[in-house]
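User: Alanine transaminase, Grateloupia catenata:
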Amino acid sequence: MPSPRATPRQKSLTSPHGLNPALQRMDYAVRGELVLRAEALAKRLPGDYPFSRIVYCNIGNPQSVGQKPLTFVRQVVAGLTHPELLKGDLPDDVVHRVEMFLGRSHGIGAYTESKGLPLVRERVAKALRKRDGVSADPDTIFLTNGASEGVKVLLQMIIRGPDDGVMIPIPQYPLYSATLTALQGRIVEYYLNESQGWRLDVNELSNRLRSAREQGVTVRALCVINPGNPTGQVLTRENLVEIVEFCEREGLVILADEVYQKNVYVDEKPFVSFKKVVTELGSSVELASFHSVSKGLFGECGMRGGFLEVVNMEQDALDMIYKTLSVSLCSNIVGQVAIDVMMTPPQPGEESYDLFVKETSDIYESLKRKAGKLSQALNTFKGVSCNPSEGAMYLFPRVDIPQKAVEEAARRGYASADVLYCIELLEATGICTVPGSGFGQAEGTYHFRTTFLPPEDQIDGVVTRMRDFHDKFLVKYS
Ligand SMILES: Cc1ncc(COP(=O)(O)O)c(C=O)c1O
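Assistant: Predicted structure for Alanine transaminase:
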């Protein structure tokens, strides 16, 4: 006789309230509905569409749209992965770098210290001293899986309960809103001023902080993205000083997202790090800054290399970052090595130097040309205005969407009329962008975010197809 079985219990995750509601509420537009539609559409191509492929302008993932990897970083990673290659004809400086790593690690197949290899942290500190002209301590540097991991660790530390909040820019990169939602912390929005080139105004910070406090939020940190995503503005040193002084006065931690520090296209606004300003002012403000190999001129998004540097934090805080990172043992070693190469590239006189300079300047000059070309073109579209991209990899044009389109979007249940705009743009042209509503925007305004990463010879085609679509959209909903 088979033994009687107990009545099965309802499955845990499929029960009506089985999933974490905070994660259900969490949204990440950059990989959201538009991308899913684009992927579905790609599978139907070539079909009955006026285009033969999807142009992915939705995400800052340069190598996915044709950017070539830099030779030096790939050679170092190759040599480390398979040291037999060192017997071949790799350049001397590659061999030297690989031997240095092999001599001070157990190779890429072994876990490292949870903060990352001491060798890399020492060399990052040295490179930061050179960048900023102020001291840097390897013990305050933590290597992470991309900048994202560092941001998440800091936000986890900061949000202690449901009344704690963090100020984030609007528009923002949705890593911040998504993580804060998941942590059930409070999002305190501050708006960048679009009519002044997405300026970060300290009066706006003050007003938003005051009103958040009046509503019972314990505001603990301010996040600044410089250069901005999706907005592309670069902050001046004067602006950084004001922000540091504001945070010091108000007791806020600064979370400085500086992953686009090498993507600055305007000579009059060189990148200045928060670390430099905090140190030069002698400020006691607590700061965490984030950097990554995904952006800049490396574009090695898949290597997941990042680091965070903290300043003015007590040992308790450093210990907690360490403990949190140690739960996942260590960041991946390829990413750690890529960070080393990015922070200390080949130097003059070394064998790889000329090629490295050529490859990086080609990428930089091309990004700069594409940024200018696309923003100038967008500004000639009827009802579109677009601040130029001073930095980063994106444009965030504002679009006057006709009332009928607003009504149609509402009828279809879209979160905003720019969702309708981006869906129709995708379906008419194959160009995949992200609706402005995914980043946040001032009430009653509509935007979309586009990268300017596709190869230069595709940019003219992108502009023509966008313009054609835009004109038809206006007629359709007039
Ligand atoms: C402003 C900003 N911060 C952080 C990240 C995350 O980068 P990573 O690939 O290093 O995790 C991105 C990625 O697009 C970004 O735009």
